[in-house]
Prior knowledge:
Layout: E1 9-15, H1 22-31, E2 36-43, H2 58-72, E3 80-82, H3 98-107, E4 116-120, H4 125-133, E5 142-146, H5 166-170, H6 172-180, E6 186-189, H7 191-194, E7 198-200, H8 201-208, H9 212-231, E8 239-241, H10 246-249, E9 265-270, E10 273-274, E11 280-281, E12 288-294, H11 297-313
Parallel strand pairs: 1-2, 1-4, 2-3, 4-5, 5-6, 6-12
Antiparallel strand pairs: 7-8, 9-12, 10-11
Amino acid sequence: MTASARPRLRVIVDNDLSGDPDGLVQLAHHALSPSVDLRLVIGSHLRPGDPFDPSGTTADNAAARAREVLALAGRDDVPVLAGSNVGLVDRATPVRSAAAEALVAEAMRSDVDTPLFVCAGAGLTEVASAWLLDPRIAERLTLVWIGGPEHPGLAEPPPGAMPIEYNLLIDVLAASIVFGDSTIPVWLVPRDAYRQTLASFAELQLRLGGAGALGAWLYEALDGVRTMAGQHGFDLGETYILGDSPLVLLTALQSAFEPDPSSSRYVTRETPGITPEGQYTPVPGARPMRVYTQLDNRLMFEDMYAKFQVHGRA
């Protein structure tokens, strides 16, 4: 890493790290990004019975995986907390956890002026719970979320799409609260956008798997999904969607002057409500949100491979 790089923003990572290993890649990339002050990692839960981890302790397992990644990245300075192992049960009651309380505490700090981004690659249980605990956090952070279906007029669902998008399905109620009840600013990377983040297994084997112990560990995790899928008669083909990596692109890799994710494209929409069926519903006059439509994969992947290689040499 360059000696001149200094933290320009604070980040809380909230991800279901016992699930799809794309989150492990994202966390490692964030951990190696010097412009980010990584304040907290929250291990969040999967939906019940998820094939990646069908246990009832998916948040605890996610926190354990986070600690493995951070150790390989040489980051023993980053606190890791498990969130709730279950979703919300009603619109008014937070699921209290040390993770949600720590999110509130970071948002409400008065001794720093760097912007705070909550980078979520899973369900929004902890974010919704934190807001229910203290709604003032809405004025003190930006949520970057990988989740939600395609927006009308912007993209069509992929062939055979799940009726409710994967991350939204984890806790539909929590997302409905964050979108419809809170005033938290949202930068959204919906399914059509995060599906753009295709990396081939050939490049992953060469450029990730060959980048030291951390890179090899991450490649093994990704390749393990291909092996597991094949055992169940499902062929992943030649590519993997590193769908959580835009969390790094939109925060750590902002432009030098007038900081913003200037090489990616978004449209501004009124923040919709979310129905119990996991669909958007218009809310005229609602606060604006960013909906990302095109991501700078070149910058995102080249920076990722370079940082892993430099770390591996060190």
